[in-house]
Design a protein that fits this description.
One of its GO terms (molecular function) is undecaprenyl-phosphate 4-deoxy-4-formamido-L-arabinose transferase activity. This protein is of the alpha/beta class. It contains nine helices and eight strands. It has one domain: Spore Coat Polysaccharide Biosynthesis Protein SpsA, Chain A (Alpha-Beta Complex), CATH 3.90.550.10. 39% of the residues are buried. The model has no long low-confidence stretch (mean pLDDT 87).
Length: 243
């Protein structure tokens, strides 16, 4: 069995379609699963839609957050509520087709600690490409990321990697930087792009914030020091409701 964690924000009109496509893919794969939907304090009716989906299926859990903490912290909240030894993290915009999860699982079962799904990107703005390049370079320099590996939000991981991620006490987290502290037994799997991909809500500003998070918390000399300081800081998230 696997746990699938999807953080979501302002997707009330889309979540049921996402759930149906995911469920269809899992049935086709013959894979037992649980789905954890994390509402990052949406301004629309996302939380109510999650409640409705949970009523439709016992396989679905809802984690409703009190205030907005960002994609990474919201994903961490979901991972901490996952019941199974293998976790898949996925975006809420269908950039990655749920039907490709089996491709990642097949490679993961070959003995890798983490498998990232990637798609061939359409041409992006230069400033966005530059921001991504800076982030990747920092992860290479500070966290020893393998040069050939691309990091995305779509990944499969399990075992001690999950324990390491769950124990992250930083106020702001970046899950890929955290797991790179534990392993470099990582590989990419290229999957087909999804034609139903929605517009992303991930902005350049968020990418810049993520870059600062990497520098502040995940450098080899700063990790332990900042980890201890953050134990007494503002919590990573506050759960309003478990569904």
């Amino acid at each position: 069995m696997i746990s699938i964690v999807i953080p979501t924000y302002n997707r009330a009109g889309h979540l049921k379609n996402l759930y149906f496509k995911l469920d269809e893919a899992m049935i086709h794969m013959g894979e037992s699963y649980e789905l954890i939907l994390v509402d990052d304090a949406s301004k629309d009716d996302t939380a109510e839609v999650i409640r409705e989906i949970c009523k439709m299926s016992r396989q679905v859990k809802g984690v409703i957050l009190t205030y907005n903490v960002g994609q990474q912290n919201a994903t961490l909240a979901g991972i901490r509520h996952a019941s199974h030894e293998v976790v898949v993290t996925l975006d809420d915009d269908l950039k990655y087709d749920p039907a490709t999860i089996n491709q990642l699982l097949d490679v993961y079962n070959q003995g890798y600690d983490v498998v990232y799904g990637i798609v061939k990107e359409v041409k992006r703005k230069k400033i966005r490409r530059l921001g991504t390049a800076v982030k990747e370079m920092l992860l290479f320099l500070l966290c020893k990321k393998p040069k050939e590996v691309q990091l995305t939000s779509y990944k499969v991981m399990g075992g001690s990697i999950l324990d390491h991620i769950r124990s992250d006490a930083h106020e702001k987290v970046y899950l890929s930087a955290r797991l790179l502290q534990k392993t470099n037994n990582i590989i990419n799997v290229e999957v087909a792009s999804n034609k139903e991909h929605l517009a992303t809500t991930y902005s350049l500003r968020q990418l810049i914030r993520l870059t600062f998070t990497i520098v502040k918390y995940y450098g080899p000399k700063l990790t332990h020091q900042n980890h201890q300081k953050d134990m007494n800081k503002r919590t990573q998230y506050v759960i309003k409701e478990l569904v």
